[in-house]
Amino acid sequence: MDNERFLLKVKLQKHQQMKFFSQLDLVRVLGRALRRTDLPIYFTKGFNPHVKLSFGDALKLGQEGIVDITFYFTAKIPVDEFKDKLIPQLPRGLSIVEIGEK
Amino acid sequence: MDWINFKKPQRYLGNEHNVIKKSYFPGQVRICLCFPDLYELGMSNVGMKIIYGQLNSFEGIYCERVFMPDEDLYLYLTEKKKKLFSLETKTPLCDFEILGFNFGYELNFTNFLAMLSSGGVELRALERKDTIVLGGGIANPEGLAEFVDVFFLGEFEVQAEKFAEIIKRYKDKEERLRALAEIDGFYIPKFYDVYIKGNRFVFEKKYKHAKLPIRKVFVKDLDNSFFPVNWLTPHTAIVHDRAQIEIARGCPNECSFCQARCLYFPYRERGVERVLDLAKGVYKSSGYENLSLLSLSASNYSNIEKLVEEITAYFKDKCVGVSLPSLRIEDVVGRLYKSLRRIKKVSATFAVEAATETLRERINKKIDLNKLFEAARVLKSLNSRHIKLYFMFGLPYEEDSDLLAIGDFLRTLKAESRLKINLSINAFIPKPFSSFEDVDMESAQKLLKKKELILSNIPRDRDVKLSISNIRKSILEAVTSYADRSFSKVIYRAFCLGARFDSYDERFNYSVWREAFKQSGTSMEDYLQRKKDNFSFSHIEMK
Fold this sequence. Notes:
Helices cover 21% and strands 28% of the residues of chain A. Chain A is α+β, with helices and mostly antiparallel strands. Chain A has one domain: Alpha-Beta Plaits (2-Layer Sandwich), CATH 3.30.70.580. By secondary structure, chain B is α/β, with parallel strands linked by helices. Chain B has helices at 39-42, 46-56, 71-79, 109-118, 160-169, 173-181, 260-263, 272-286, 304-315, 329-333, 337-340, 357-362, 369-381, 400-417, 444-456, 471-481, 488-496, 510-519, 524-529; strands at 29-35, 61-67, 98-102, 132-136, 150-152, 186-187, 192-197, 200-205, 214-215, 243-246, 248-249, 268-269, 290-294, 321-323, 349-353, 386-393, 420-427, 464-468, 540-541. The interface between A and B is medium-sized, with 26 and 23 residues.
């Protein structure tokens, strides 16, 4: 592997209108939100690299609740910086409830 | 609304990234841009994004959006006597001063009436006291003359500012229409008398300041025209799920069947530097993982090599896919081969149109099929697995041997390349303003026979995926494309009988349309044969 990965484990609250967006939509929404920041994104390897994210159990469409998501970076990101940069890019109805480094 | 009961509720929420929210104040002019097809298609339309961004850049104007709701929501609204609403503020359509429709396609006409009706708006222009329905995006507007107050011909960016000034200055519908009539590009049907005398359509002005002929307008300088850098980015998948940067408008090729060439005439390019700036800006504002360099024929772009090189260099580390639709075959194997290697997704779509050299020459489609075999091998080396090919049938000068040649060609291509082939075969539909505008559409009977003949020689194979025109639908498209003002009543009947989504094969209902023609005392054949010495749209100039 050519670069090291730095992980942030985030609990994301899906509520209001965002409950109508599927797990697949969420991949799109978070990938694009990250790309709008200047955070050092870790991309998957392979022929079609994309923003690396891993998801815990999916919520049913229309259900509010918490989704566990792991974000990957190529450098260590302080939790505050992550929040400051990502939160303005999130649609209303997605909010960060907890961040754990690992 | 309990959205969970509807298919893809994401379509109706209006919470996209970069959506424009303005608060209301008295005197603000409220416009709703309307797209008579589903969200996934409408949100892929660049024109709509341009107009949305530009109108909202003017003070005193708030421009929102609505798309044709899918059947479930449409029926629910009808049944519950609720009104179709804008996405941004959920305002019923009847509460807007201006409804701006981007028709895009002739088979969207019943959806257009369905949207008005569902939005609580009177269908006929003369019945509407205050609301102005503006329509654009089609070549021949005559079939809709009864329903639309103002048509716009050409590229709206050019007159958007004047339009905004007029609707801010005048509050009365009649005053607004009169002021618009004096500006190039705006066509107000009720200011003209159109009748048939002998074998000709006659056009007479009823309002002395109206223009005759009516000329389309176009952007002179693409580098300085408005571009929606704050790219409206959906949270859900749409048909063309990528940000599109327009690199050129118009097409310098002269294929005889092509209408786009005339609608977007003349050919204009945007400079490499400007395209790069826009691409960077759009990426920053949207975070889109795919960018597409849009034009009718990317191969004709003068600096295509430099552009591809610079754009792929910039986006390489960002892992953004750059795609280049509308390439010519010669370029895939020729001068662009090196640059294409830098693009991960080479969209391999080639409009071959006719399978023999003789027929291609007669329709002025200049491609070398031998190059296509070479291109197919190149594509394979570029990791493309699919190739998409377009053919037409029912073309003038066509022989049976031209049709059988399609199958032969496919067999050779398969043997040479082993690519999977997506094949789209469409009936030739003559179109206003194209070089073939005088050509008659072939009869349904003949077209059905030709379709059989083509199918008899197409390899039955898992690797060949085929879609071929529904003949009745194609004929209806021909009729609507050449419609005169009398056609409004047929569209109205079809809508009343339940026609919607006519452009979708699985939703198109021929018997409904046949009944609509019958109730209007006419038939599709009548319209097809109603040949005159000029056209119902001869008062419009596209060049």
